[in-house]
Amino acid sequence: MKNLFQTGNILKSILLLAIIMFAVAPSKGQQLKPAESGYAPVNDLKVYYEVYGEGKPLVLLHGAFMTIETNWGQLIPELSKTRKVIAVELQGHGHTPFSDRKLDQATLASDVEGVMKHLKVDSADVAGYSMGGSIAYKLAIQSPKRVKKLVIISSTYKSTGWRPEIAEAFKNMKPEMFANTPMRTAYDAVAPDKTKWTKFIEQMIVFAGTTFDMGDANIAKITSPVLIIAGDNDGLDKIELSKTYQLLGGDKFADMGPMPKSHLAIVPGQGHVSLMMQTKTISAYLNDFLK
């Protein structure tokens, strides 16, 4: 009973922080209108995208239950000053319709590649947050020529990259926990079919609770420079995160040799949700790494 109570508290805390983020994002969100938006016909699905600014392309992949606006609204105005920003809404999220197609990282990464093909973008820098980060990892593994530089924000390529209590909390999610939340409001505002809400949540709960591992060997083969950004208390297992950085060629004594092409940034005093609210910090890291 004690473990169940603790798990319930963790899950409630995650949802509460997510709700706060959703509530804050629109008030401080993007004021820009996309230069282009539409649907890319990909893998029997119409995937929604928005394009901002001009310059070298940067693809943005949002976190679970989020939209372009709620995840990236505060960052797009800054990033699009010097870049062509391509923001994608994954299956069932935002404007992209719900599909009974099973959710997995490989399929979603293939969808992202399809959007790039549709927009005639041969390669781009890619940044993903949380679920979007795992999709970004998968894209770099299965379509390495598509990814120039990779930014992974508070994410992992395997289930064991999360602290055990987080994985346990995912298993205890229920659709009713998302009722009457800003997440539902954001969904209803743009979803093509609002009646799919419950099916979407049920599908995402299964996805979140499914174990996955893209393989240490595959991560070690990534040739793109990678920037990992994490909060010091964001739910990621920091021992596993350190191992990930080592697989990517990092964790060296750079004073005795060249600086690794991949970088690791641990932001102090931040959790999983609050990290993405640090707009100036995230923007500075991205601009410096992607320049």
UniProtKB/TrEMBL annotation:
Q: Name one Pfam family in it.
A: Abhydrolase_1
Question: Which keywords does this Swiss-Prot/TrEMBL entry list?
Answer: Hydrolase
Q: Name one GO molecular function term.
A: hydrolase activity
AB hydrolase-1 domain location is 56-199
What this protein is called in its record is Alpha/beta hydrolase
Taxonomic source organism: Pedobacter ginsenosidimutans
